[in-house]
Write a structure and sequence with these properties.
This protein is an alpha/beta fold and 547 residues long. It is 55% helix and 14% strand. Helix 1 links the parallel strand 1 (3-7) and strand 2. The chain is flat.
Length: 547
C-alpha cells in the first residue's frame, strides 16, 4: 500500500481525508506531534505529504523546507489562504501542488493519484534502469556501480539502454542501429562498432567481468540463410547436372579417374561463383537495410539492378519515389495556401474583435452595434469553415429544388442590421424562380456578394433581381477600376479602391469564384468607378448534348 502522510491540525479535516483515502487503499498516517514533524516523516517514509500552512509551533513553509533538505517526496499544500502570494511561496518552497479549502475529496484524490503516477510510475521505471548492481540513469546520462559512476555520450547511453532492456538476450546490430536512427543518432555499422568498443573500455573501470558479449556471425548467418533460400534451386540443378554428366560418362565406360578432375573443376567454379554472388547479395541486403533507416529514400541508396527482374523492381521503386515527391509537393503547396489564407483571415477577423472590445471598454450598450460585431465575427468563422470544406466540397453537397427567393430572403434578413445601420435602401424584386442547387453553399455565395456590396456602399441602394435564371446584385458603391476587374477573384487581391477600406482582405470573392466553378455557376462582375458594381450569377444548368 502506498503511504500518505497528513500534516493538518484540524481533526475533522484530517480524519475526513484519512477515511476517504483509506477507501482507495492508501496507508494514511496523521501527524499529531506538530513540534516533531520531521521525525515522523523519517520514521513513516511516506510517498506523498498533504501539508497545511497554518500549524502549531512552525508553519507549513518551514516543514516543507526541512523535508526538502533530505527528500524529493511530493508535497501538496492544503490551505484556506488562497492569496496568490501564498501559492507562490508554497511553490518556491518546493511544493508540487496547492489546494484551496474548501475542496472536493474526489478532486484531492485525483490530484494525489496524478502526482504519485508521475513521480513513481513514470520516473522510476522509465528513467532509471537496473541490472544486478549496475544502475543506468537516463536523465543524467551516467552508469553507476556502487559508488563509482561513468558519464556516457548520447549514443553510448542509448546503446546501454537497449542492452539493459534486453538483458540476457541476443540483440542484433540491426536492432540497435534501428533504435539509434529512431533516436536521431544516425550511425552506420562501423560507427556502432566504435561506440561498443568505447563502451567496453569505459566499463572496464568497474573491474567487472566482461559485460557486453559479442555473438559473432548472427547477422551473417541470417543473410547466408536467406541467400541459400533464394538460390538453392539453382545450385541444386547445377549439382544434378554434374551428377548426370558423370553418370553418362560412367555408362560410356569412362574411368572414374578421368572424371575426377573435371568434376573438381566444376565444383571449383561453383564455389568461386557462389562466393562472388554471395558477396554481391550481401552488399545489396546491407544497402537495403540502410535505406530502410532513412526518412527519405533516394535511388542512390538502392543498388543498381543487374537483371530484368531487378530492373522492373527498380523502375517500380522509382515511380513510387516520384509519386511520393509529387504528393509531398502537393502537401507543401496546400500547407502554404492554408497558411496564407489563415494569415489573411486572422488579419480580417481582428477588426470586428477589436471593435467589440472597444464597445465593451467604452460601456457602449447598444445591442445593434454589439450584434453587428458578433455577426461579422460569425461571417468570418463561416468563411474559414467553407474554405476548409471547399477541398472536399462534393462530399458535402445536398442538391435539391429550391426557390431562389427563399435563399435570398434568408441572407437579406441576416444582413438587416447593416442595412439599418448604414441607412442603405433595399430594392428586392419578386424571385419566384426555382433552381437546382445546394442551399447552404448558394446562401454562402450570395451572403459574400451582398456583404461586399454593403461594405463598399456608403449611401444609396442595393438592387436584387433576376432575368431568367441569372441573379443580379447591383449596388451604388465606390466601384472597381477597369484594370482591377480581371483580378478581383484572386486570393488576397483588394484592388486600388479596396485598399481604401481597411477591412478588405480579398478573400470573399476568391471563395465565391471557387465555389461557383465547382457548382458550375458562371459568375460575372461589371463595375464603374463611383457609380456602382453589378454581380451576376447564372443558375441555369445547360444540358449535355451528345450527337
Amino acid at each position: 500500500m502506498q503511504k500518505i502522510m497528513i500534516v493538518e491540525d484540524d481533526d475533522i479535516i484530517a480524519s475526513s481525508i484519512k477515511k476517504h483515502l483509506e477507501k482507495w487503499n492508501y496507508d494514511v498516517f496523521v501527524v499529531n506531534d506538530f513540534e516533531n514533524v520531521l521525525e515522523d516523516f523519517r520514521l513513516y517514509e511516506p510517498l506523498l505529504i498533504l501539508l497545511d500552512i497554518s500549524l502549531p509551533y512552525y508553519n507549513g513553509y518551514y516543514w516543507c523546507q526541512e523535508i526538502r533538505k533530505e527528500s524529493e517526496v511530493p508535497i501538496i499544500f492544503i490551505s484556506s489562504t488562497s492569496e496568490n502570494m501564498n501559492i507562490v511561496m508554497a511553490m518556491n518552497m518546493g511544493a508540487d501542488d496547492f489546494i484551496n479549502k474548501p475542496f472536493d475529496l474526489m478532486v484531492l484524490t485525483a490530484k494525489l493519484q496524478a502526482i504519485l503516477r508521475r513521480t513513481y510510475s513514470f520516473k522510476k521505471t522509465q528513467n532509471v534502469l537496473n541490472y544486478h548492481s549496475l544502475t543506468l540513469d537516463l536523465l543524467k546520462g551516467v552508469i553507476s556501480y556502487h559508488e563509482d559512476s561513468i558519464e556516457l555520450t548520447k549514443t553510448e547511453l542509448k546503446i546501454m539502454q537497449i542492452l539493459f532492456e534486453h538483458a540476457g538476450q541476443i540483440v542484433s546490430r540491426d536492432t540497435i542501429m534501428e533504435a539509434l536512427w529512431q533516436s536521431e543518432a544516425f550511425v552506420d555499422d562501423n560507427t556502432l562498432s566504435v561506440n561498443i568498443n568505447r563502451l567496453r573500455k569505459k566499463l572496464d573501470a568497474f573491474s567487472l567481468p566482461q559485460l557486453i558479449h559479442t555473438k559473432k556471425g548472427i547477422g551473417y548467418q541470417y543473410i547466408m540463410k536467406t541467400y541459400i533460400k533464394d538460390h538453392y534451386r539453382f545450385y541444386l540443378v547445377y549439382l544434378v547436372m554434374i551428377f548426370l554428366f558423370d553418370l553418362i560418362l560412367l555408362l560410356c565406360d569412362v574411368s572414374i579417374s578421368l572424371l575426377y578432375y573435371p568434376t573438381c573443376l566444376c565444383f571449383f567454379f561453383v564455389i568461386v561463383y557462389f562466393s562472388y554472388d554471395y558477396y554481391k547479395y550481401n552488399n545489396k541486403i546491407k544497402a537495403l537495410k540502410y535505406a530502410l533507416h532513412l526518412d527519405h529514400i533516394y535511388l542512390e541508396n538502392i543498388s543498381t539492378p543487374e537483371n530484368a527482374l531487378e530492373d522492373s523492381y527498380y523502375s517500380l521503386i522509382e515511380k513510387i519515389i516520384q509519386a511520393n515527391i509529387v504528393l509531398n509537393n502537393q502537401k507543401d503547396t496546400n500547407y502554404h495556401e492554408l497558411s496564407d489564407y489563415m494569415t489573411l483571415w486572422v488579419h480580417q477577423i481582428k477588426t470586428p474583435i477589436a471593435g467589440l472590445r472597444l464597445l465593451i471598454q467604452s460601456g457602449e450598450s447598444s445591442p445593434h452595434l454589439l450584434s453587428m460585431q458578433i455577426l461579422r465575427i460569425e461571417q468570418y468563422v463561416d468563411m474559414m469553415m467553407y474554405y476548409v470544406k471547399m477541398g472536399h466540397m462534393n462530399q458535402d453537397l445536398k442538391i435539391g429544388h429550391y426557390k431562389i427567393g427563399d435563399i435570398v430572403n434568408g441572407v437579406v434578413k441576416k444582413q438587416s442590421l447593416f442595412f439599418i445601420h448604414k441607412k442603405i435602401s433595399l430594392n428586392l424584386e419578386e424571385l419566384d424562380e426555382e433552381i437546382v442547387t445546394d442551399e447552404k453553399w448558394t446562401s454562402f455565395i450570395i451572403e459574400q456578394i451582398l456583404s461586399n456590396a454593403l461594405k463598399y456602399t456608403k449611401e444609396g441602394s442595393i438592387h436584387i433581381y433576376m432575368k431568367g435564371y441569372t441573379l443580379y446584385i447591383e449596388d451604388t458603391g465606390i466601384g472597381i477600376k477597369k484594370e482591377d476587374l480581371p483580378r478581383v477573384f484572386e486570393k488576397g487581391f483588394t484592388g486600388t479602391n479596396g485598399r481604401i477600406d481597411k477591412k478588405a482582405s480579398g478573400l470573399g470573392l476568391y471563395l465565391v469564384k471557387n465555389i461557383c466553378d465547382t457548382l458550375g455557376y458562371p459568375i460575372h462582375i461589371e463595375s464603374i468607378i463611383n457609380q456602382g458594381t453589378t454581380v451576376s450569377i447564372c443558375f441555369e444548368k445547360k444540358p449535355l448534348i451528345v450527337e
